[in-house]
Amino acid sequence: MGFLDYFRSQQKKRTASMAKDRLQVIVARERSHRDGPDYLPALQSDILEVIRRYIEVEDDAVRIQVEREGDCEVLELNVTLPEES
Amino acid sequence: MARIVVVTSGKGGVGKTTTSAALAAGLAKAGYKTVVVDFDVGLRNLDLIMGCERRVVYDFVNVINGEANLNQALIRDKRVEGLEILPASQTRDKDALTFEGVQSVLEGLAENHDYIICDSPAGIERGAHLAMYFADDAIVVTNPEVSSVRDSDRVLGLLASKTRRAEQGDAPVAEHLVVTRYAPSRVGKGEMLSVEDICEILSIELLGVVPESNAVLNASNAGVPVILEDGTDAGQAYDDLVARYLGEPRPQRFLDEKKGLLGRIFKG
């Protein structure tokens, strides 16, 4: 890093790394939806609704994706429960 | 057999038409019979960038509808031997491009061309879909900016699923990334996504980087494909990019900022 960069970096946050982080998250999410069947988003919101009858969870608590292993399709469901307080 | 290349991006204004014009002119300069086709029905602009707007008589849709034949509609470039342009129609009819129509025009062009460059419209609607459907290669044009990168990823998904090659189970469309409006000085300051970041996010191979340059606007003002402006940075970047596309290895020349004397002293 050059002499002047030190002062520059103190002045503003480096936005390029924010851009990269945000893109990696959104692109990964959109890819997992894209590769799966069309009903996945609806299924995801239905499951979220069912879980909410019993537990209070965040909007992004349910993650769902289809993985292909050879001839076999595996539906992977990931539910993040809130930490007990 | 002609190779069909789509120049696409999802987002508008990132440099698809500039890149299509440069790629087509570069391939023709290298000795290949090349035609560049404007798929942006309703918003014809390739003719302006190529500088042949006053010579348009018939267009893509006229040929599809049988109102003109290909030879009547093709415009021969006056600067580069072996380069032709098929302009888009300005009709407001969204359904003017039909699947069968596009297929038959591309088959007609394939008979006497080596490369068919399809300049895609922005978006993911019919025109963009038809521009990519028959492609063998895709040039994905991206700016180092979040919305452009995200849209490019969306387009990569479509290339992998909604193309003839994907539907017929052939080898996938070969994808090449072109990053335009790149400003190495801003990348150095951490204000702009780097080429490495973009390649990593999109997991796609880099074909070339075109620096942010006054030459691009100047060339479009004059109706000259920027690749023909030999002395400019953007012209040289496109020249390198076309050579790489044709298999000739060339180093990336525009990844680092040109440092002035003061810059060298302070940056070491």
Number of helices of chain A: 3
Oligomeric nature of the chains: heterodimer
The geometry of chain B reads as: globular
Helix/strand-derived category of chain B reads alpha/beta
Largest interface comes to: A-B, 20 and 21 residues
Total number of helices of chain B: 13
Low-confidence stretches of chain B: none
State the helicity of chain B in percent bands: 40-55%
Low-confidence stretches of chain A: none
Strand content of chain B: 15-25%
Family (chain A): Belongs to the MinE family.
Protein name (chain A): Cell division topological specificity factor
Keywords (chain A): Cell cycle, Cell division
Pfam families (chain A): MinE (PF03776)
Descriptive key words:
heterodimer, A: 85 residues, alpha+beta, two-stranded antiparallel ribbon, 2 strands, 19% strand, B: 268 residues, alpha/beta, eight-stranded mixed β-sheet, 13 helices, 41% helix, globular, cell division (chain A), MinE_sf (chain A), cell cycle (chain A), MinE (chain A), Cell division topological specificity factor (chain A)
Topology:
The complex is a heterodimer of chains A (85) and B (268).
Chain A (H helix, E strand, L loop, with lengths): L2 H9 L3 H21 L4 H13 L9 E8 L2 E8 L6
Antiparallel strand pairs in A: 1-2
Chain B lengths: L2 E6 L7 H14 L4 E5 L7 H5 L9 H5 L5 H4 L1 E2 L6 E4 L12 H12 L4 E5 L6 H8 L3 E6 L3 H16 L2 H5 L5 E9 L1 H5 L6 H8 L3 E6 L2 H9 L10 H13 L15 H7 L1
Parallel strand pairs in B: 1-5, 1-6, 2-4, 2-5, 6-7, 7-8
Antiparallel strand pairs in B: 3-4
Helix pairs in contact in B: 1-12
